[in-house]
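Our consortium's second objective concerns turning raw sequence data into structural hypotheses that experimental partners can test. To show how far this objective has progressed, the report includes one record in full. It was chosen at random from the queue rather than selected for favorable results. The single chain below, 241 residues long, was entered without modification.
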Amino acid sequence: MKSNTRQFNDIKTLVRKNILNMKPYASARDEFKGEAEIFLDANENPFSSPYNRYPDPLQWKVKEKLAIIKDVKPEQIFLGNGSDEAIDLVIRAFCEPNDDAILITEPTYGMYAVCAAVNAVKVEKILLTPEFDIDLDAFSASDSKAKVIFLCSPNNPTGNLLSYNKIIEVLNRFDGLVVIDEAYIDFSNSRSFVPELTKYPNLIVLQTFSKAWGLAGLRLGMCFASPEIIQVLNKIKYPYN
């Protein structure tokens, strides 16, 4: 495993160069944050109905409420069409197709490998221990070239928590991105890794409205990270989703 020698203020060294240099799609709704009675910028049907207007592309009202609950800044929140969109965008933004890799610990949630395959990114695998925990010896022995590690805790499908201290060890050792998928964190007694964002700029935490919140039909996933990482994800997300 790579040692954590890279300072994360050089996030530009991790982002794919074409994405770093691209100009993102921008709508007038991105630039206008106030209230208005008339909108002419998006060619929407002007006649009143519950769904005739595009939504706020960056969901600021939701983020402001969520920031209070999670004790983070709104700029540290990305909201997507389920956590799967965040998984896909992290791989797409930071991993070069046919060159870079992600690292997963098996058995685990299947969409990490699926999103990697869609983006032509290699998948490296390390088995969990017989107790379904992180095998730090296997991590240490690995000559992984991965740019992103995905850890699911509580783990899907095994249902157990990964060791908090072992996850901290991975964060300290790895100089790429560490994504902790906490889709089921509200069903456990363990503390979330969201407060650790202040210590680990290479940390990304995923949560969801689909499980404990009981809102699976909304398809709304949460991603918490540094403002710099969130800016990259917002840069390549589809508009108005």
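The partners drew two points from this record. The first strand starts at residue 77 and ends at 81. The helical segments are 17-21, 28-31, 60-70, 83-94, 111-118, 136-141, 164-173, 227-236. Both points have been shared with the crystallography group to help prioritize constructs.
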